[in-house]
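go over this:
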Amino acid sequence: MASRPAPGPGTIPKIAAILGALAVAGQEGARLKDLAEDTGIARPTVHRILAELTAVGLVRSTAQRRYACGSKLYALGLAAPGPVLNADRIRHEAQRLSGICGDTVYVGVRHADGVTYVTRTSGTYPLRAYAIDPGDILPLSNTYCGLAILGTLPAAEQERELGQWRRRRSPEWVATSSVKHEAMMRRALADVAELGYAAGPNHVVPELSGLSLPVPVHEATGAALAAVSISAVHSRLSPERIQGTLPSMRETAERLAESIALP
């Protein structure tokens, strides 16, 4: 199992890593053991930092002996600038793409070690792929937008995320070999690096196909800050249709970049 390289020396990088892992864990929270593995920080150190953060309200413990973000983090977050400069414009561009392709379009922005979905729009095709709601925060390896972002991250970050994915792989994938599934994921990440997009069936949800590409807004490391994706039933995303849809996808990504900026 891959674990994240330990943060640099000092307490602040460790706190940042722990809070980032908790943000991705969401309301369900995370176990002490998992936080230590995900952050690469020694378990006793994680326990000490969690106790101190809990004491000041930045972290809370759940009845299931897990840890989650505390309510004070919400107030702090409201005071911070966000990457979304124009939410109405983002939705307009997503809806425009839905009108062109006829399918469900998502826009996601990187959030700590995950992706926050800022909008979802629908096309005219009656079978709609509503696997994610706006506002959801999910791990990068659990969504098509997340895969597009993950494909722009350094190899070490990709390996760490895939290690976490192995541990949390959903029971709904019981009919799919984990080796085969991981090979599909790695192919998608390679496609992002080589082709500029990821596409295919069954990457994140069984019986669902997707096409995603990064929005051209990048951090100093070269990592994409956001991505746009189309989700549909298998028959809607044949290889020929993917190639026919890519020009509109790329144009949309360029337009979205005008409404998304580094915080």
